[in-house]
Every structure is written in C-alpha cells, then in structure tokens.
Structure prediction request, 137 residues.
Amino acid sequence: MLNSGLSNVFIVGLNRYADIDALGMIVVRENIKNDMDVIEITYCFHLDNEKKESFELRIDANALELIVDDDGRAEPEWIALENNQCPNCPYQKEMQPHCLVAKNLVNIVDRFGDICSYDEIDLEVITDERRITQTSD
Prediction:
C-alpha cells in the first residue's frame, strides 16, 4: 500500500482506497503492485460553495503516459470519435471508436458539470516534490 500520509483510510475497491486529508478532501488512491515507476499528481479544487473535488493523475514515469483505470461504465456518446474528430487525429472509428483525450476527461466533466468557468476556486497541486496553491481571480 502506498504511504499516503493521511488518516481515515476507507477501502474503495480492489487495490483502491480513499483517505481524508487534513483539509477534509477525499483522495482516492490505488495500490501499485508492480515495479513500474509512477508519477502522481493530485489536484484539489476548493470551490466557493464549499464543494471540494480531488483528482489524482498517475503517469508512467518511463513512457510519460497517463495510467487510466477503466471503471467499466458505458462511454458517453459525446466522446465518440465520429462526433467531432480532430483533423490531425490518427485513429479510425472502426479501430478506436472513442476519442482517447475525451475519454480521459469524462470523470472531470461529470464532476464539474455544474461549475461555471468564472467561479472562483482555490487550487492545490500536490506532487512528491512540491505543493502549489493558487486562488483564481
């Protein structure tokens, strides 16, 4: 199990657990059971209406590719490659039916669907090396 440095650990599923950090944020983490080097970046959003959201990105340190966990949900229609395929996209809908970039954004869009682009937020970005905070204007 990863040493999260947080308290109140809850088991979420196979190889997954959630912690509540010092700011009351729920942070979902995953156990890594192989030798792959992983870069972890956590984004914690604190919104005006007391809503808090946290996202943890896991990146393969060798390939610098996002590690995506398939949660088994049906894919929303808006990520279908045929909906609005980028002109330089190398994929064909027969081989890759969904836009891979959009697929990585589904969870974020679902969780921030009721937030406006002009809403004020406090953002905290946490890595092994540093913690950065920023308040929007």
In short: Residues 1-15 have pLDDT under 50 and may be disordered. Residues 7-135 form one domain.
